């Protein structure tokens, strides 16, 4: 959900599309190894990112939030959980107590937040948020401008930070960024018998795919020759499917809207993207249950050795490489998402972060918790799990660590991320209707994948329903 989803990892002002110039400006900051100033600069003796601790002024050893209880509704699972293990340190430093009253995946959390905010029944101070989601309930979020100083924010990559802004108000502090890359099984790709057979069947050498045509060939090849595995997979429902489809449409040279906000996802690029998904499923190259898969399911399926190559978020890398967790540890690598015939590499991107609710009665303490969770120390620990930091100083350290490690796979991993961030970073349409749009579109995509309708008919029907929804919402 996947950001700099963002899986992507995602979203900046109230525009429905981000200009390429703005994206490149953002990435030049991320990838230029810019040094933060003052306390946000990595310590030059230890090369460790400086901490931007949530600890507030502790004069006379007085804990600033003694007696305060903060409630939080957070995203859980996967690489999210490790960060929450640091919360007792925040409690010890500040005297506050933190209760996580809800934890679920981003889609379930989004549904809960919309219901709770609409019914005025939200009883939490801090929420996990996402650049794709926050615009829907921005009226229920507290502007952070007066809770975070310029010094608090100076180490964050500006364009990613701006992804949480609307009408000059900041509503989300980014924890991590996401962008799609492709995971592939090195043991399968390096197998000599596979190389020989593939060359015989397709006329070119077997290597990690650089184009979508190669990806499709290889997915079908491994399905036929992989001893019971599926060649590939995609998350098959919710915004997870919509986003994957969106990046394929981009790769085929299209978009969801034109410059006048007219729906165009049912034009040639969309039909080609949907046809590829249908063809892969029909060939048995994707699991039969894929329309029920979200992020955890696709990651576990690859980790169990059931898939050859697929699109994934980098945050799963460390879990994948743990032999206690998966069967593919040490047997996979990553590659930049393969390009479509347009020359565009898929790059669904975004940011995951935290917000303070407008209903919170403890807003300074809530802001302090977010400062702690997004501190340089915590973000550096997060990066060890494969998450992409949103602080410049932490990026400097991560890139330095990768080069110093001598680990060829780790060096490749961060080189791939650097290239993807620099050249492929693009968000979904930056509209408040993104999730309602997704809720209309993904059932049609499921029907297309399963063969219940043709790509053209399914997308035409989806486009009509989306146009109707957009008009009803005033667009």
UniProtKB/TrEMBL annotation:
<dbReference type="Pfam" id="PF01547">
    <property type="entry name" value="SBP_bac_1"/>
</dbReference>
<protein>
    <recommendedName>
        <fullName>Sugar ABC transporter substrate-binding protein</fullName>
    </recommendedName>
</protein>
<dbReference type="InterPro" id="IPR050490">
    <property type="entry name" value="Bact_solute-bd_prot1"/>
</dbReference>
<feature type="compositionally biased region" description="Polar residues">
    <location>
        <begin position="44"/>
        <end position="55"/>
    </location>
</feature>
<feature type="signal peptide">
    <location>
        <begin position="1"/>
        <end position="34"/>
    </location>
</feature>
<feature type="region of interest" description="Disordered">
    <location>
        <begin position="38"/>
        <end position="60"/>
    </location>
</feature>
<dbReference type="InterPro" id="IPR006059">
    <property type="entry name" value="SBP"/>
</dbReference>
<keyword id="KW-0732">Signal</keyword>
């Amino acid at each position: 959900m996947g950001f700099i989803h963002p899986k992507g990892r995602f979203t900046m002002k109230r525009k429905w599309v981000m200009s390429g110039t703005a994206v490149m400006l953002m990435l030049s900051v991320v990838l230029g190894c810019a040094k933060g100033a003052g306390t946000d600069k990595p310590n030059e003796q230890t090369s460790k990112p400086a901490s931007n601790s949530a600890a507030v002024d502790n004069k006379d050893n007085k804990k600033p939030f003694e007696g305060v209880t903060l409630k939080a509704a957070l995203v859980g699972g996967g690489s999210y959980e490790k960060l929450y293990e640091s919360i007792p340190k925040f409690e010890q430093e500040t005297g506050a107590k933190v209760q996580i009253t809800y934890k679920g995946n981003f889609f379930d959390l989004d549904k809960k937040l919309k219901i709770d905010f609409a019914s005025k029944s939200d009883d939490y101070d801090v929420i996990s948020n996402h650049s794709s989601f926050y615009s829907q309930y921005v009226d229920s979020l507290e502007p952070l401008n007066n809770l975070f100083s310029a010094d608090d924010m100076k180490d964050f990559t500006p364009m990613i930070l701006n992804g949480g802004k609307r009408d000059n108000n900041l509503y989300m502090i980014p924890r991590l960024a996401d962008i799609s890359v492709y995971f592939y099984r090195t043991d399968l790709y390096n197998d000599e018998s596979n190389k020989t057979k593939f060359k015989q069947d397709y006329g070119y050498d077997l290597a990690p795919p650089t184009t979508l045509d190669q990806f499709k060939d290889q997915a079908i090849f491994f399905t036929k020759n992989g001893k019971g595995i599926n060649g590939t997979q995609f998350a098959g429902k919710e915004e997870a499917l919509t986003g994957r489809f969106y990046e394929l449409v981009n790769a085929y040279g299209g978009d969801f809207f034109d410059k006048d906000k007219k729906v165009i996802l049912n034009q040639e690029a969309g039909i080609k993207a949907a046809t590829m998904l249908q063809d892969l499923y029909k060939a048995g190259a994707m699991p039969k249950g894929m329309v029920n898969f979200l992020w955890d399911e696709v990651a576990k399926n690859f980790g169990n050795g059931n898939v050859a190559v697929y699109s994934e978020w980098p945050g799963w890398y460390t879990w994948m490489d743990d032999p206690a967790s998966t069967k593919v540890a040490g047997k996979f690598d990553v590659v930049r998402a393969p390009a479509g015939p347009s020359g565009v590499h898929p790059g669904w991107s975004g940011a995951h972060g935290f917000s303070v609710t407008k209903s919170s009665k403890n807003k300074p303490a809530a802001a302090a918790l977010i400062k702690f969770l997004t501190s340089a120390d915590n973000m550096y620990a997060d990066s060890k799990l494969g998450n992409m930091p949103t602080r410049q100083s932490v990026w400097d350290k991560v890139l330095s660590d990768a080069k110093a490690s001598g680990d060829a796979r780790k060096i490749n991993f961060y080189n791939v991320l650097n290239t993807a961030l620099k050249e492929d970073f693009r968000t979904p349409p930056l509209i408040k209707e993104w999730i309602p749009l997704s809720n209309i579109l993904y059932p049609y995509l499921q029907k297309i994948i399963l063969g219940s309708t043709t790509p053209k008919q399914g997308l035409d029907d989806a486009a009509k329903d989306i146009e109707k929804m957009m008009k009803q919402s005033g667009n």
